[in-house]
């Protein structure tokens, strides 16, 4: 009887340990630091567009240079904006609405958006110097495909 109980306890504890490991691997994402993120992004571009070693080295330096300037895409905090609340009992969040922002927060967000846009334009100009014309053309085409609005800016509507 003791052996049977001990065996049952051992099986249950092994099952619980495996379940915790599985949850940790699936649910928890490890935050990459800026250097890791720049390396990861470089590796993706090298693989996708067939860059040579010299291009890869230049691209890695470029990605490291812009890691701080380009926000979430380049390793910054995701989904954070001024005035955003986490948790709490705010009625507006429960209904799927954003909390109201102050004028100062709106101005700060606009300034950050402009700084990111300028950094992206500078990054793009430097990237164009690294890639061949064919690689750059493919890169831009892929970038437009990834845009949530199908490549349109400013909510422009497609005419039929």
Brief rundown of the structure:
This protein is mainly alpha-helical and 160 residues long.
Strand content: under 5%
Q: How many E strands? A: 0
Mean pLDDT over all positions: 76
Number of separate helices: 6
Distance between the termini: 77 Å
Instruction: Classify the secondary structure makeup into a structural class.
Output: mainly alpha
Q: Rg, please?
A: 23 Å
Can you give the helix content as a percent range?
Answer: 55-70%
**Given the C-alpha coordinates, what overall shape results?**
flat
Give unreliable regions as ranges: 73-93
Provide structural commentary.
- With 160 residues, the chain is mainly α.
- The protein has helices spanning 2-27, 34-49, 53-65, 91-94, 103-130, 133-146.
- Helix 2 runs antiparallel to helix 3 (53-65) and helix 3 runs antiparallel to helix 5.
- The longest helix has 28 residues, at 103-130.
- The chain is flat and about 75 Å long.
- The termini are far apart.
């Amino acid at each position: 009887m003791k052996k049977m109980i001990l065996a049952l306890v051992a099986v249950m504890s092994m099952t619980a340990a495996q379940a915790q490991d599985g949850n940790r691997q699936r649910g928890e994402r490890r935050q990459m630091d800026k250097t890791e993120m720049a390396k990861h992004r470089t590796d993706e571009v090298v693989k996708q567009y067939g860059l040579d070693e010299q291009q890869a080295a230049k691209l890695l330096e470029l990605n490291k240079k812009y890691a701080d300037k380009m926000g979430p895409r380049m390793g910054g905090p995701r989904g954070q904006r001024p005035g955003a609340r986490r948790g709490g009992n705010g009625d507006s969040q429960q209904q799927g609405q954003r909390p109201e922002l102050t004028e100062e927060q709106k101005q700060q967000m606009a300034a950050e958006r402009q700084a990111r846009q300028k950094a992206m334009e500078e990054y793009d100009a430097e990237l164009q110097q690294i890639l061949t014309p064919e690689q750059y053309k493919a890169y831009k085409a892929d970038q437009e495909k990834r845009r949530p609005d199908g490549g349109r800016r400013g909510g422009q509507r497609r005419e039929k």
